[in-house]
């Protein structure tokens, strides 16, 4: 599908709610860079990630800064409810990024825009594509209203690229990527991952690899809980923190890595017996791509994030993956 893009100037812009959206854009960036002029829009939250990945791939790509949505989750309120209680902030962010894109398109003569869940990253004079696996957003309340808003923005794009399989019985995202709305041009592009199938070590040396990710303050709360969990266990544990921000959290049983490159993460997964992680869709696609044993995955959905709660339940039903709530993490039988 990407073969149709040749000799184009293409802007790629993922949302920065965690690093998952940026990570799943890497295979697209890698493929398109071979025959096109690529410009990647970063924010302060994913700038270092992109610089490391692009350097590792030895790609010559321009980077431009784009404003962040600046979403911060609550320690108390569910994430979806916090956004619903302040919709004006979301609408202003979309409008702001749309104005920023006008300048980028004019300055760099953009032909094609590929947005990953950034509703305002589009331009009337460009071919506009958006990557999302959420055609049917799952929230406990106001579901119809939320999806009306979602589809209102999605239909402004030429095509919606869903990173999942065409066949329903093979979809990793379940009903999230299903919709009965007819005025959306949907293309299922297959799962996206920067990882490859590997041969796992027969004698893995890491008992638990923990992938910490997501939006604050839940990212830090998750890290603190995990470190406390292993205080009383003599296990070999490696934590990838998913941030360059310093931390005072210590544990002699744990090895800490801030941001790891694709090759570094693959090597760690290869050496690991079990993985504890969030049930973010990009993380799940990565583990699926590597053929990691899904019964050795422990999913801890971000509290108050219905998408992750649904995906965890979906993976448990089709793969037998384990789930534990963050508030019950200390009862986890290791």
Your description of this structure?
By secondary structure, this protein is of the alpha/beta class. It has 2 domains: 2-188, Glycogen Phosphorylase B (Rossmann fold, 3-Layer(aba) Sandwich), CATH 3.40.50; 206-331, Glycogen Phosphorylase B (Rossmann fold, 3-Layer(aba) Sandwich). It has helices at residues 20-32, 47-57, 79-85, 87-108, 143-154, 218-229, 262-270, 281-289, 306-319, and strands at residues 9-14, 37-42, 62-65, 112-116, 127-131, 159-162, 186-188, 206-211, 237-240, 254-257, 272-277, 297-299, 322-323. The protein has a 7-stranded parallel beta sheet with strand order 3-2-1-4-5-6-7, sandwiched between helices. Strand 11 (272-277), helix 8 (281-289) and strand 12 form a beta-alpha-beta unit.
What key attributes describe this structure?
seven-stranded parallel β-sheet; six-stranded parallel β-sheet; Rossmann fold; 334 residues; alpha/beta; 13 strands; 2 domains; 17% strand; 9 helices; single chain
Task: Briefly say what this structure is.
It is built from nine helices and 13 strands.
General form: globular
User: Major beta sheet, specifics?
Assistant: 7 strands, parallel
CATH topology of the largest domain: Rossmann fold
- Rg from alpha-carbon coordinates: 20 Å
**Order of SSEs:** EHEHEHHEEHEEEHEEHEHEHE
C-alpha termini separation: 44 Å
The helix content, as a percent range, equals 25-40%
- As residue ranges, the low-confidence spans are none
Q: What proportion strand?
A: 15-25%
Quick one: how many beta strands?
13
Briefly note the structural class of the backbone.
alpha/beta
CATH architectural label of the largest domain: 3-Layer(aba) Sandwich
């Amino acid at each position: 599908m990407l073969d149709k893009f040749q000799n184009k100037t293409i802007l790629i812009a993922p949302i920065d709610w965690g690093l998952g959206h940026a990570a799943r854009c890497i295979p697209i960036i890698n493929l398109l860079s071979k025959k096109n002029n690529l410009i990647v829009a970063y924010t302060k939250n994913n700038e270092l990630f992109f610089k490391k990945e692009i350097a590792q791939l030895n790609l010559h790509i321009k980077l431009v800064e784009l404003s962040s949505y600046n979403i911060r989750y609550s320690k108390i309120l569910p994430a979806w409810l916090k956004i619903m209680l302040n919709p004006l902030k979301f609408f202003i962010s979309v409008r702001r990024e749309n104005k920023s894109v006008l300048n980028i398109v004019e300055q760099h003569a953009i032909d094609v825009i590929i947005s990953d869940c950034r509703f305002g990253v589009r331009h009337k004079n460009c071919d506009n594509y958006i990557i999302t696996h959420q055609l049917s957003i799952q929230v406990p309340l106001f579901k119809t209203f939320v999806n009306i808003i979602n589809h209102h923005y999605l239909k402004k794009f030429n095509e919606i690229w869903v990173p999942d399989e065409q066949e329903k019985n093979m979809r990793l995202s379940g009903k999230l990527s299903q919709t009965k709305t007819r005025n959306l041009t949907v293309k299922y592009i297959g799962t996206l991952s920067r990882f490859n199938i590997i041969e796992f070590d027969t004698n893995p040396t890491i008992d638990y690899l923990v992938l910490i990710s997501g939006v604050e303050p839940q990212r830090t709360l998750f890290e603190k809980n995990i470190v406390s969990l292993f205080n009383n266990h003599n296990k070999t544990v490696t934590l990838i923190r998913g941030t360059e921000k310093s931390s005072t959290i210590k544990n002699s049983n744990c090895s800490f890595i801030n941001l790891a490159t694709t090759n570094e993460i693959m090597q760690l997964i290869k050496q690991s017996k079990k993985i504890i992680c969030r049930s973010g869709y990009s993380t799940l696609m990565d583990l699926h791509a590597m053929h990691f044993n899904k019964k050795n995955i422990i999913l801890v959905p971000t509290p108050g994030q219905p998408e992750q709660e649904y995906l965890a339940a979906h993976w448990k039903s089709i793969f037998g993956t384990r789930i534990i709530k963050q508030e019950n993490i200390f009862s986890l039988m290791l």
